Amino acid sequence: MTAAYPPARTVEVFEDVAGVRVPDPYRWLEEETEEVRQWQRRQAELATAAVYAGQDPEAVRALIRACDAGSRPALPKYAAGRWFRMVSPPGGPAPVVVVADEPFGAGRTVADLAGSGEGGHPPVVSWLAPAPDGRVLALGLCTDGSEHNTIRLFDVASGRQLGGAPEQVLHSAWAGGVSWLPDSTGFFFLALTGAPEDFRQAVFLHRLGGGTEPEPIPVGAGSREYTLVQMSPGSRWAVAAHRVGSPVPVAVRDLSDPGGAWRPFVTGCSGTVAGHVVGERYIAVTDVGAPRGRVVAIPLDAADPGDPAGWSELVPEGDTVLRSLTPVGEHLYLSEFDRTFARVRILDRSGAVTGEMPLPGRGALAAPFFPLTALATGAPAADFVFAFSTLTSSWGVYRHRPGETEPETLLPPAVVLDAVLEEGAALAPDGVAVPYHVVRGAGGAPAPVLISAYGAANVPLLPQYQPDLAAFVAAGGVLVQAYLRGGGEFGRDWHLAAHRERKHVRDADLVAVAEHLLDTGLTTSDRLALTGGSDGGLMCGIALTRRPELWRAVLPRAPLLDLVGGTRDPYLDFVIRKAWGDPDDPDEVRRLLGLSPYQLVEPGVFPAVYLQAGATDPRCRPWHARKFAARLQAAQRGEAPILLHVFEDAGHGAATAHDVAAAQDAEWLAFLIGTLGLPGVSRPGPT
Questions:
Q1: Is the pTM of this model over 0.90?
Q2: Is the pLDDT confidence value at 686 over 90?
């Protein structure tokens, strides 16, 4: 295999980082030159040929299509008594947006996006937001998989695209797209102020039929952070929530005062205060004074809103982890994690708990990746429409009306795996129990096992259906989903236990889970694989360089792999400074080098590796995977292949076109089938 790799020259390049001299022999692979593009294409051709060798590619793709039938649906948005949703016609060239009287009614088309795509792929609707009066629809359109999107406006009555939309580019959908003013005359939105690669953002106000101006929010101005403006029908207040992973309402404005300015609200808070404007109060889930969360109310006209002593506690901290609130008519639905499994309680507008909503099983509610995005709810509907899945059954959509006993099924799950769910835990070196779930079929042990994990950014890994992981189980594999510290599954303390200077704890947790699976006989090291994406891709890189003997295969996806080089990228510099350390401190730089997979590569025997990245990824740019693959290919002293496929027109995942994502999943699965020797490709059963 080594002789077949496209040659990768080395260069005498050194980076001086806070006085620490760091060699970078594959720096040239950071550039988007013709030489790099040709090298990348040859790597992709080699990877595709290698993963499908001896297999029926169409059978693998058919399994991916069967499992994709259970993919998470895009939930409809409510406004003025009607529901707006995105529809991708089977085999159609582009999605359309329809409006209907029911969440999934037939409706009529109000936005046809035919002809809006690029590169032969249909465009992706990153977000959609109807105006409160239902007359204008705003949506974000991405055409290259990068998540960068632009605002389009449509007249709902005629379906005609309107002119005069803002020209600014939105970096992603993480700030919810646009936030309409209660009177539907305009909206706030967060957008880039310059080139996307510079990653500078600001809040703007756009008036329909008028212009677009920067909004002078006094807290966080000029930051690379994310800010979302929240409003509520019938309330005079606007709130600016700041920070994507741990939102805080940093500023407030009285919209009834034409000359009123923004004033600071909750500032200087390191915790999370994530809620909604409810009348004259901001009702929020917070971990301030409660690591697992509590619900509080903060008067919007408070003299000192930043002092928690002035907050009213509505729901105290308990045994579950409180995650988010959703306004529903005159109620608030409180989403919680009970040992990672979803629980939903119902509050009235005063904050009193009035009941608990039954769920279809032990699984997860669909939720945005980051808490800030979950605050972009728009006008609250009278019913709670939600998606729910488990690790063994795909997404269904349900509706619950306050006061009713059971939710109504709107769309049933399309796929049920012939598998069972088991719970387990491994003991970390410091004595902490690290939970995991096992999804397995009828096969015995030792089994081909794939560990999927993340453990970062206060983001919870949930017991939910993922088509690619379901396809692995349907092909005869056993899935282990591990809940490592650094994630948000068990509250603030669980997250902070592997944050910044304690990042290494996440990696120790992963090794503890892997060794526990080996010790208990579920699998052996020649049948054990690991996968993770983004920061989880970095986790994979550390695992395969530090403990290569543990794994038969490692599959980093859209990975971050060079922490030092990442500081030259404005977006990753922002992320690394928040979550990893200070690259201006030489001691911190040395610590980062000990956690950076690209720098950890030394000659040795490595497991089979399949690196997958997107050419238009603005978060973990493809050069991370390119540099790491080149260095690992040169260092490999074993027989296992080191494969790299950078997919064109693919980004970090959220805006990748469906056909490209399906091709990525099929190749990823084929690599696992061949490497682990899975028993065969079979389709999961319908419900």
A1: yes
A2: no
